[in-house]
Protein backbone atom coordinates (compact mmCIF):
# COMPACT_ATOMS: atom_id res chain seq x y z
CA UNK A 1 0.00 0.00 0.00
CA UNK A 2 1.39 3.41 -0.98
CA UNK A 3 0.46 6.22 1.37
CA UNK A 4 -0.28 9.69 0.05
CA UNK A 5 2.80 11.89 0.43
CA UNK A 6 1.35 14.10 3.13
CA UNK A 7 0.37 11.03 5.17
CA UNK A 8 3.83 9.49 4.75
CA UNK A 9 5.59 12.71 5.74
CA UNK A 10 3.32 13.28 8.73
CA UNK A 11 4.03 9.71 9.84
CA UNK A 12 7.78 10.45 9.62
CA UNK A 13 7.22 13.65 11.63
CA UNK A 14 5.31 11.67 14.25
CA UNK A 15 8.15 9.15 14.50
CA UNK A 16 10.71 11.93 14.99
CA UNK A 17 8.45 13.56 17.62
CA UNK A 18 8.16 10.24 19.48
CA UNK A 19 11.95 9.86 19.41
CA UNK A 20 12.25 13.32 20.92
CA UNK A 21 9.80 12.44 23.71
CA UNK A 22 11.64 9.19 24.40
CA UNK A 23 15.11 10.78 24.48
CA UNK A 24 17.25 10.06 27.51
CA UNK A 25 18.29 13.72 27.83
CA UNK A 26 16.32 16.93 28.13
CA UNK A 27 18.36 18.31 25.23
CA UNK A 28 18.03 16.96 21.68
CA UNK A 29 20.12 17.98 18.67
CA UNK A 30 18.08 17.29 15.54
CA UNK A 31 19.51 17.44 12.03
CA UNK A 32 16.99 17.94 9.23
CA UNK A 33 17.42 18.66 5.54
CA UNK A 34 13.85 20.02 5.33
CA UNK A 35 13.53 22.27 8.37
CA UNK A 36 10.37 24.11 7.18
CA UNK A 37 8.66 20.80 6.40
CA UNK A 38 9.64 19.36 9.77
CA UNK A 39 8.33 22.43 11.59
CA UNK A 40 5.04 22.15 9.71
CA UNK A 41 4.77 18.50 10.77
CA UNK A 42 5.41 19.47 14.42
CA UNK A 43 2.81 22.24 14.11
CA UNK A 44 0.29 19.70 12.83
CA UNK A 45 1.11 17.31 15.69
CA UNK A 46 0.64 20.11 18.22
CA UNK A 47 -2.74 21.08 16.73
CA UNK A 48 -4.07 17.52 16.46
CA UNK A 49 -2.86 16.24 19.84
CA UNK A 50 -3.06 19.40 21.92
CA UNK A 51 0.59 18.94 22.96
CA UNK A 52 2.43 21.97 24.30
CA UNK A 53 4.99 22.57 21.56
CA UNK A 54 6.80 25.90 21.29
CA UNK A 55 9.06 27.39 18.63
CA UNK A 56 11.84 29.90 19.30
CA UNK A 57 13.43 31.85 16.47
CA UNK A 58 15.74 34.87 16.79
CA UNK A 59 13.40 37.19 14.91
CA UNK A 60 10.10 36.15 16.51
CA UNK A 61 10.99 34.89 19.98
CA UNK A 62 9.11 32.05 21.70
CA UNK A 63 5.60 31.17 20.62
CA UNK A 64 3.12 28.32 20.57
CA UNK A 65 3.14 26.02 17.55
CA UNK A 66 -0.45 25.00 18.29
CA UNK A 67 -1.78 28.57 18.29
CA UNK A 68 0.38 30.62 15.92
CA UNK A 69 -0.76 33.97 17.35
CA UNK A 70 0.17 33.07 20.97
CA UNK A 71 3.57 34.49 21.99
CA UNK A 72 5.32 34.01 25.32
CA UNK A 73 6.01 37.49 26.75
CA UNK A 74 9.61 38.60 27.33
CA UNK A 75 11.11 35.59 25.51
CA UNK A 76 12.54 37.28 22.43
CA UNK A 77 16.11 36.86 23.66
CA UNK A 78 17.53 33.35 23.90
CA UNK A 79 18.52 33.69 27.56
CA UNK A 80 15.01 34.73 28.62
CA UNK A 81 13.47 31.87 26.61
CA UNK A 82 15.86 29.33 28.17
CA UNK A 83 15.02 30.61 31.68
CA UNK A 84 11.29 30.29 30.87
CA UNK A 85 11.85 26.68 29.74
CA UNK A 86 13.83 25.90 32.88
CA UNK A 87 11.24 27.37 35.25
CA UNK A 88 8.18 25.86 33.56
CA UNK A 89 6.51 23.17 35.64
CA UNK A 90 4.50 21.79 32.74
CA UNK A 91 5.09 19.38 29.90
CA UNK A 92 6.61 21.08 26.89
CA UNK A 93 8.66 20.52 23.77
CA UNK A 94 10.67 23.61 22.89
CA UNK A 95 12.04 23.73 19.35
CA UNK A 96 14.86 26.22 18.76
CA UNK A 97 15.74 27.19 15.19
CA UNK A 98 18.39 29.64 14.02
CA UNK A 99 20.70 29.35 17.00
CA UNK A 100 23.95 31.16 16.29
CA UNK A 101 27.35 31.07 17.91
CA UNK A 102 28.87 32.31 20.06
CA UNK A 103 26.51 31.63 22.94
CA UNK A 104 26.88 33.66 26.08
CA UNK A 105 28.27 31.85 29.12
CA UNK A 106 24.81 32.10 30.75
CA UNK A 107 23.03 30.62 27.70
CA UNK A 108 25.55 27.75 27.61
CA UNK A 109 25.00 27.10 31.32
CA UNK A 110 21.21 27.13 30.91
CA UNK A 111 21.39 24.65 28.00
CA UNK A 112 23.53 22.31 30.09
CA UNK A 113 21.12 22.57 33.02
CA UNK A 114 18.15 21.83 30.75
CA UNK A 115 19.97 18.73 29.47
CA UNK A 116 20.30 17.45 33.04
CA UNK A 117 16.78 18.25 34.26
CA UNK A 118 15.22 15.56 36.44
CA UNK A 119 12.80 13.19 34.74
CA UNK A 120 9.92 14.21 37.06
CA UNK A 121 8.06 16.07 34.33
CA UNK A 122 8.76 15.78 30.66
CA UNK A 123 10.48 18.72 29.02
CA UNK A 124 12.52 18.56 25.85
CA UNK A 125 14.59 21.31 24.27
CA UNK A 126 15.23 20.55 20.60
CA UNK A 127 17.96 22.41 18.72
CA UNK A 128 17.23 22.02 14.99
CA UNK A 129 20.31 22.15 12.76
CA UNK A 130 22.53 23.49 15.54
CA UNK A 131 25.97 24.67 14.44
CA UNK A 132 28.44 21.73 14.38
CA UNK A 133 30.70 23.46 16.91
CA UNK A 134 27.81 23.65 19.40
CA UNK A 135 26.91 19.99 18.83
CA UNK A 136 30.52 19.03 19.49
CA UNK A 137 30.69 21.31 22.55
CA UNK A 138 27.58 19.75 24.12
CA UNK A 139 28.84 16.24 23.35
CA UNK A 140 27.08 13.46 25.23
CA UNK A 141 24.85 15.82 27.22
CA UNK A 142 22.51 15.92 24.24
CA UNK A 143 20.81 13.17 22.26
CA UNK A 144 21.66 13.39 18.56
CA UNK A 145 18.87 12.59 16.06
CA UNK A 146 18.36 12.87 12.32
CA UNK A 147 14.98 13.29 10.73
CA UNK A 148 14.11 10.79 8.01
CA UNK A 149 13.38 13.50 5.45
CA UNK A 150 16.48 12.48 3.49
CA UNK A 151 15.16 8.95 2.93
CA UNK A 152 14.04 8.08 -0.60
CA UNK A 153 10.42 8.93 -1.35
CA UNK A 154 8.00 6.37 -2.73
CA UNK A 155 6.86 7.14 -6.25
CA UNK A 156 3.20 6.85 -7.25
CA UNK A 157 1.51 6.91 -10.60
CA UNK A 158 -1.16 9.55 -11.21
CA UNK A 159 -2.67 10.39 -14.59
CA UNK A 160 0.18 8.61 -16.39
CA UNK A 161 2.91 10.55 -14.53
CA UNK A 162 5.14 9.46 -11.68
CA UNK A 163 4.88 11.74 -8.66
CA UNK A 164 6.84 11.93 -5.45
N→C terminal distance: 15 Å
Structural class: alpha/beta
Rough outline: globular
How many strands appear in the DSSP assignment?
8
Looking at the overall shape, the CATH architecture is: 3-Layer(aba) Sandwich
Tell me the helix content: 25-40%
Number of helices: 5
Low-confidence stretches: 1-5
Spatial arrangement of strands, main beta sheet:
3-2-4-5-1-6
Mean pLDDT: 86
Q: Kindly estimate the percentage of residues that lie in beta strands according to DSSP.
A: 15-25%
- Describe the biggest sheet? 6 strands, mixed
What is the fold-level CATH name, i.e. the topology? Answer: Rossmann fold
Number of domains: 1
Structural description of this entry:
The chain contains five helices and eight strands, in the order αβαββαβαβαβββ. Helix 1 packs across helix 2 (35-49). The model is unreliable at 1-5 (pLDDT under 50). The radius of gyration is 17 Å and the shape is globular. It has 164 residues and is α/β, with parallel strands linked by helices. It starts with a helix and ends with a strand. It has one domain (25-147): Rossmann fold.
Amino acid sequence: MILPMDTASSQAGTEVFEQILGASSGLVLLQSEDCPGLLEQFRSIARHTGQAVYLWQPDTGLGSMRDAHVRVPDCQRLGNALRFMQQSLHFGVYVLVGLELPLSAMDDTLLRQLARMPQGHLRRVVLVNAPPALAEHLGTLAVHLRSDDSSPRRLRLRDGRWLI
